[in-house]
Amino acid sequence: MNTISRLLVRLRLGFFVAAVAVVTSISSSSLAQSPRPGIISGPGQIQVGGQNYSVEPPPPELPRFDLDFPGGAPEDLIKAISRVQGAKVNAIIPEEYVDVKIPRLQLSHVTVPEVFVALHAANQRLVSAPILGNPGATRYSISGFKSTGDGVITTNTIWTYFSDALPDASNQVQNQKLKVFSLSRYLGKPEQGLHSVEDIITAVQTGWKMQRITPNPELTYHPETKLLMVFGSDAALASITDVLRQLEPPVVVPVAAPTEKLNPEVMKVLEKSGTLLQKDPPKSK
């Protein structure tokens, strides 16, 4: 092979090596910039077939504990769970549910959500749910704690007590009655030991609130006759009786005037009628 032939071979070999290097460089750069299929390309994302998809993170691990709850109010259950879990449970308990009775719970190696799922099952009840054409219809209701938020349960989740059991309105009306109270003897000036209508009604409503009487009794005052008309349960009516008993006006006992201060003509009339049996004894000097 002459010199010119050897030079052409070297040139061709050099061009081939350079081309391979360029291709290798481009491929390496592309692989470095674009993730391979099935490789996570960022937080919450994964690429498959050149398409990015969202990836839900695994739920946080919640503490597990053993619970032996003897039964009681919703607040008692929250305190018991907070104590055995070692962290406070965030809970909201509406006023109408503070005295609800929760059954005994004996659970082992559970989380807070699992406790409340078990509570739902324990509180499931068959209740009356009359519908058009079927007044005897029934349905199952549940009560307990439900979470608020985006559905991801953590140790900071807020739980709210609820109940989907509707009250039986017909029974509530049947158990109520109308009673009328006369307030005439209780009304007057404070210095006379008497009271205003507003003060009496406020005292009655305060007693209802403290007893948590439901449904709310209806109350109407008729100023012309000084009558207080109330439609409510026996407990509501009994509360009014107790309030009025404590507001009884003082008894005023009249004191007879000394006979020596009476008009002589009046004394003569009293003596003739026998009302004045004897005169007051004379005062010793």
What is the rounded distance between the termini? Answer: 176 Å
Tally of DSSP β-strands: 12
How would the global form be characterised?
elongated
Q: Could you tell me the mean pLDDT?
A: 75
Task: Classify the oligomer.
Answer: single chain
Number of helices: 7
Rg calculated over all Cα atoms: 44 Å
* SSE order: HEEEHEEHEEEEHEHEEHH
Strand order of the largest sheet: 4-9-8
- Report the portion of residues in β strands: 15-25%
Structural class label: alpha+beta
Low-confidence region ranges: 26-42
Description:
The longest helix is centred in the N-terminal third of the chain and has 31 residues, at 3-33. Helix content is 34%, strand content 21%. Strand 1 (45-48) and strand 2 form a beta hairpin. With 285 residues, it is an alpha+beta fold. The protein is elongated. Residues 26-42 have low confidence and may be disordered. Among the domains are: 65-166, no CATH class; 172-246, Ribosomal Protein S8, Chain: A, domain 1 (2-Layer Sandwich), CATH 3.30.1370. Helix 5 packs across helix 6 (234-246).
List the defining traits of the structure above:
12 strands, alpha+beta, 21% strand, elongated, 7 helices, 285 residues, Ribosomal Protein S8, Chain: A, domain 1, 3-stranded mixed beta sheet
What secondary-structure arrangement, pairings included, does this model have?
Blueprint: H1 3-33, E1 45-48, E2 51-54, E3 65-69, H2 74-85, E4 90-92, E5 105-110, H3 112-122, E6 125-128, E7 138-141, E8 143-148, E9 158-163, H4 169-174, E10 177-182, H5 197-211, E11 218-222, E12 227-232, H6 234-246, H7 264-273
Parallel strand pairs: 4-9
Antiparallel strand pairs: 1-2, 3-5, 6-7, 8-9, 10-12, 11-12
Helix pairs in contact: 5-6
